[in-house]
Amino acid sequence: MSEKYEVLWAAKAEDDLANIVDYVANDSPSNALKILQKIKEAAAQLYHSPERGRIVPELQDQGILQYRELIVPPWRIIYRTAGKNVFVLSVLDSRRNVEDILLGRLIKPRGYNGY
């Protein structure tokens, strides 16, 4: 039997998802609901297999290997695993400059005290 992980959503990832759903709902509430379900279902699959996603290529190029992603076109679900937890960190539109967004969100800025 496979190990079970807890999938936890960061506040920023929840905000990302809410913004996506709100944006799509302006044109099509039914599509917004479908997108919400697809993204939530994909993330829920991490409960059993968090290693299924690929390492984020833009971060891998920088030598950063702890972040993975699942693709739900055109969105990318960015997450990392720590112990028995899977932390969903961002849900991004792959048509944007994902590298800049990720580096800004996931890399600790200089002077970060780690509250």
Quick synopsis:
By secondary structure, the chain is of the alpha+beta class. It is built from four helices and five strands; from the N terminus they run E-H-H-E-H-E-E-E-H.
- Using the coordinates above, name the CATH class: Alpha Beta
CATH superfamily membership, which one? RelE-like
Supply the number of structural domains.
1
Low-confidence stretches: none
CATH names the topology as YaeB-like fold
Shape: globular
User: How many strands appear in the DSSP assignment?
Assistant: 5
- What is the strand content? 25-35%
Share of helical residues: 40-55%
If you had to describe this structure to a student in words, what would you say it looks like?
The protein has 115 residues and is α+β, with helices and mostly antiparallel strands. It has one domain: RelE-like (YaeB-like fold, 2-Layer Sandwich), CATH 3.30.2310. Helices cover 40% and strands 25% of the residues. The chain is built from four helices and five strands, in the order E-H-H-E-H-E-E-E-H. The chain has a five-stranded mixed beta sheet. Strand 3 (67-72) and strand 4 form a beta hairpin. The radius of gyration is 15 Å and the shape is globular. It starts with 5 loop residues before the first strand and ends in a 9-residue tail after the last helix. The model has no long low-confidence stretch (mean pLDDT 88).
